[in-house]
UniProtKB/TrEMBL annotation:
Keywords: ATP-binding, Ligase, Nucleotide-binding, Protein biosynthesis, Transferase. The keyword Ribonucleoprotein does not apply. The keyword Cell membrane does not apply. It is an enzyme of class 6 (ligase). This is Aspartyl/glutamyl-tRNA(Asn/Gln) amidotransferase subunit C. GO terms for molecular function: asparaginyl-tRNA synthase (glutamine-hydrolyzing) activity; ATP binding; glutaminyl-tRNA synthase (glutamine-hydrolyzing) activity; transferase activity. SUPFAM superfamilies: Glu-tRNAGln amidotransferase C subunit. PANTHER family: GLUTAMYL-TRNA(GLN) AMIDOTRANSFERASE SUBUNIT C, MITOCHONDRIAL. It comes from Paenibacillus contaminans.
Amino acid sequence: MSITIKDVEHVANLARLELTEEEKQMFNEQLNAILKYAEQLNELDTEGVEPTSHAMLLSNVMREDEVRASLAIEQVMLNAPDEEDGQIKVPAVLE
């Protein structure tokens, strides 16, 4: 598979880009070089290789969800800038 100048013009049109003839030629060469490099992957023997979605194994690094005691409301209100009726009072953010 190779990219033609017509393909470059089509993609440039979709992206609303105006390209000069030199830019079209440059992008044509670059895109073909990328495809040529990617085609090398077809030469690899992947028989018996299990498909993966990541190069490295991922594991859950989160801690177990455990129920534990929370702070008393009095302790929480010690850190609040202002308090009203047992709730933290903050400046209004809507007009």
